[in-house]
UniProtKB/TrEMBL annotation:
InterPro entries: AstE_AspA_cat, N-alpha-Ac-DABA-like, N-alpha-Ac-DABA_deacetylase. The lineage of its organism: Bacteria, Bacillati, Bacillota, Clostridia, Lachnospirales. It comes from the Bacteria. Keywords: Hydrolase, Metal-binding, Zinc. Pfam families: AstE_AspA_cat. The keyword Secreted does not apply. This is M14 family metallopeptidase. It comes from Suilimivivens aceti. CDD domains: M14_ASTE_ASPA-like. Residues 32-215 form the Succinylglutamate desuccinylase/Aspartoacylase catalytic domain. Its cofactor is Zn(2+).
Length: 313
């Protein structure tokens, strides 16, 4: 059942219209989860996940208990133009929650979204990375809500769960606002901006059904074996940044383990044919973020490595 949540007239002459698809199974009031995506207009990974959710749920409606609310595009104007923010307003939609019913048009939209999700048993906010870096499938949660949210996150078939990822659990985000209202919520991040990885999308979709089965909302078959994620804290994540301005050439693969001393890549100067900097691993670990966009300036993020774990884990 497709329903409009809110339609707001914006100063740029556009109308921001938010819709959702509610799929109801047996005993539709017995449980409800919400899956949202498209808060940032340059992130499309969640589009495929929601498509797969709708397809699989409609394929076996007899296996669903409760209701699943699917919100594929919370920033449809941004998605039309493949830009992160709301076009014309230069505002990050994920920095205005929980919104204000008596505020600006955008604050009213945010309040309507929160109000519609409020009361759900769980909310998953699906993101992709930006155009500059590629991420392995991961769940990001804040330490403040970790005790309540972590048991759900571990069921999601992702490669890692990152606690205290401050950039993603900012206090004005949708996930943080819903957690404050008592709706267990977390962020799923994967892939790269403006692209879709079906492999990652299927992995996360499988995880969602595994989670639904665990909480009693799905009694159908599960696809494949569900993996256990590596758990981390910010103290176990090493950020590697460029010390030069040039072109980054990685020499390792994404989602691979590296050892201390391994060459991770180099920053070159094409004009002079020089290697400006060799990037070496300082510790053993898993490369879970890898620079996708080759041009870098001094200080740009090149890699994130999850340290403190062994290859055989």
């Amino acid at each position: 059942m497709i329903r409009e949540i809110i339609a707001a007239q914006l100063p740029v002459g556009e109308k921001l219209r938010i819709v959702k698809n509610r799929i109801e199974g047996k005993d539709p009031d017995s449980g409800r989860i919400a899956i949202v995506s498209g808060i940032h207009g340059d992130e499309f990974e969640g589009q495929y996940v929601i498509y797969e959710m709708v397809r699989r749920l409609q394929e076996h409606p007899e296996c669903l208990h409760g209701s699943v609310d699917l919100y594929p595009a919370l920033n449809p104007l941004g998605m039309d133009m493949a830009v992160r923010e709301l076009p014309g307003l230069h505002m990050d939609m994920n920095r205005i929650f929980p919104g204000n019913e008596n505020g600006t048009a955008l604050e009213k939209v945010a309040a309507a979204i929160v109000g519609d999700i409020a009361g759900a048993d769980l909310c998953l906010d699906i993101h992709a990375s930006n155009i500059f870096a590629r991420e392995i499938p991961q769940v990001r949660i804040s330490e403040e809500f970790a005790e309540r949210v972590l048991p759900y996150a571990q069921l999601m078939n992702v490669d890692m769960v990152w606690t205290n990822a401050a950039e993603t659990v900012h206090e004005a985000t949708l996930a943080h606002s819903l957690n404050l209202l008592g709706v267990p919520s977390f962020v799923v991040e994967m892939g790269v901006g403006t692209r879709i990885s079906r492999h990652f999308g299927n992995q996360v979709t499988d995880g969602i059904f595994h989670l639904m089965k665990h909480i009693g909302m799905w009694n159908g078959e599960l696809k494949g074996k569900i993996q256990q994620p590596v758990l981390s804290t910010d103290g176990e994540v090493e950020f590697i940044r460029s010390g030069s301005t040039g072109v980054f050439l990685p020499e390792i693969e994404h989602n691979h383990f590296v050892k201390k001393g391994d060459k991770l890549g180099e920053v070159i100067d094409p004009l002079r044919g020089e290697v400006l900097e060799e990037i070496l691993a300082q510790r053993n670990g898993l490369v879970f973020t890898l620079r996708e966009y080759p041009f870098v300036r001094e200080g740009a993020l090149l890699l994130r490595i999850l340290t403190g774990i062994d290859h055989d884990e």
